[in-house]
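User: quick one
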Amino acid sequence: AQSVTQLGSHVSVSEGALVLLRCNYSSSVPPYLFWYVQYPNQGLQLLLKYTSAATLVKGINGFEAEFKKSETSFHLTKPSAHMSDAAEYFCAVSASVGDEKLTFGTGTRLTIIP
Amino acid sequence: EPEVTQTPSHQVTQMGQEVILRCVPISNHLYFYWYRQILGQKVEFLVSFYNNEISEKSEIFDDQFSVERPDGSNFTLKIRSTKLEDSAMYFCASIAASDTQYFGPGTRLTVL
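Assistant: Done. Structure below.
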């Protein structure tokens, strides 16, 4: 079985500051890991995914995440926060990148301080 | 860019009533899913559907729920007799083989 834990239900950063959203996973098989973003009143949009290729994954909107097996982590970062980054971010895990269900974390609400 | 669509965007119903939530997946996708998100909680898997049958379902997906692909384009979730605790955002997702799940914008279901 797979699960993810997101530390921090709310994170606030100043505009231009580093964004770091934490995700730790638990999986009995090599995991596939995802970050999704949800803007207010919208659906879930894929930011990036790890599928056992490069451990540093680059996504859309300047976000990236690093898979660290030794730490069972897949933290999401962005060097410089923008006001438009304010949203809810979900880490998710599946046993494959194909037809497997996604198991989501509880989400982190990111607030950007002007 | 192709997208998953869902209707209605908001559904209000009385407890005990039946509701049908509709989704139009991306046209060449093969696998279909329903997830739900109770307000303030995480997104939870309900059911996956492939080749016109359920491939996996969660413990949430009890006998009150059913899914159907009545034609070549729609994918529906029916709740037979709604309860207050069914109030949530329901997301449809679809995927081509070995690809990423694409989510629709969701239907907010409010049970009164």
